[in-house]
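Hi V.,

Quick status before I head out on leave. The structure for the redesign project is tokenized and pasted below; the design run finished overnight.
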């Protein structure tokens, strides 16, 4: 129960979180590249004066002292020999730390005055990545992608596996032998080679990821369903349907598949974490989703390259991935025990 509640909360946080963090997942803050996680807003007081002078460093103005009053920063500027150009405030507005820059206290000759700007307070609770993007927003958005791929790929695997296994198990004989030998052959194919081939042919994208993973993970599902079908087709209600002249398709649809719900649901809950882990592994190898989209695997791969300088880039996405995988596995184990007749 606790695992189910956790997964529901995780899904809601990943779905709603990026809308309330105040950042877009692909928004770049050039002034905040690789800043550490902090519960206090940026910029810090010591950073305001250097950043304000840096923003005006290309204007060829003589820069004076910087003063800070509440949420407003001002700097004394002068332009000997020529009047100040009001357009120089654009240089300040281009900096992520400031907004609404304007001229004030201009002298009579127009050659000196102050530039006043509002200081933008921004929170980066997880810090920012190598491009200056908010890591919290990207981690939550990545959760959407990873969870969506996990669920969609599992549904693809379920559809193919249940159909294949039920048909093979019910028809039996030569059809069963041919279909299951096909499964054995597909088992022998290297998964990574299959995905690389698809990436080369169709490029990296979201749809390809869940189709590729789902098209491989149905093999175990097919074997499980086939075994259950072999047992079910000897039951009295199936024999009664056959005696009444119900077609094979009707028996599969109305009697076999509905009675497979228990084992299929249990296996699905155990397959979702496996699929998410596979997607993360592929993204770690550079075969996952493309920028600007991201997933937990992509973030972990980026964080691994900077683990010494910025360990948070790896630890935060890894914590989300690990906790989700644990919850899914606990949920699967709980459902398996609840539906196992031997445990009743």
């Amino acid at each position: 129960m606790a695992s189910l509640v956790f997964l529901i909360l995780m899904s809601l946080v990943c779905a709603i979180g990026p809308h309330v963090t105040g950042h877009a997942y692909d928004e770049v803050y050039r002034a905040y590249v690789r800043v550490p996680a902090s519960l206090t807003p940026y910029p810090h007081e010591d950073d305001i004066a250097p950043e304000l002078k840096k923003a005006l460093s290309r204007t060829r103005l003589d820069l004076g002292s910087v003063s800070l009053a509440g949420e407003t920063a001002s700097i004394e500027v002068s332009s000997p020999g020529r009047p100040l150009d009001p357009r120089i405030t654009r240089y300040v507005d281009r900096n992520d730390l400031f907004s609404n820059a304007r001229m004030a206290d201009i002298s009579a000759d127009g050659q000196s005055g102050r530039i006043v700007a509002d200081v933008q307070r921004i929170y980066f609770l997880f810090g920012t990545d190598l491009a200056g993007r908010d890591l919290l927003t990207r981690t939550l958005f990545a959760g959407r992608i990873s969870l969506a791929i996990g669920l969609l790929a599992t549904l693809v695997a379920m559809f193919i596996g249940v159909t294949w296994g039920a048909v093979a198990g019910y028809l039996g004989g030569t059809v069963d032998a041919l279909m299951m030998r096909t499964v054995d052959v597909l088992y022998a194919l290297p998964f990574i080679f299959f995905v690389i081939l698809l990436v080369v042919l169709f490029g990296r994208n979201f749809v390809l990821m869940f189709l590729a993973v789902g098209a491989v993970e149905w093999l175990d599902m097919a074997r499980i369903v086939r075994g259950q079908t072999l047992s079910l087709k000897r039951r009295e209600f199936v024999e009664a349907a056959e005696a009444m002249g119900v077609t094979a398709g009707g028996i599969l649809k109305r009697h076999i598949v509905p009675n497979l719900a228990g084992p299929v649901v249990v296996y699905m809950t155990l397959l979702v974490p496996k699929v998410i882990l596979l997607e993360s592994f592929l993204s770690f190898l550079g075969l996952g989703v493309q920028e600007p989209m991201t997933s937990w695997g992509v973030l972990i791969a980026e964080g691994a390259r900077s683990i010494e300088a910025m360990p948070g880039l790896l630890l935060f996405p890894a914590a989300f991935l690990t906790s989700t995988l644990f919850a899914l596995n606990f949920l699967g184990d709980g459902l398996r025990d609840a539906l196992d007749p031997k445990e009743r």
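Above is the designed sequence. The first strand starts at residue 62 and ends at 69.

G. will cover questions while I'm gone.

Best,
W.
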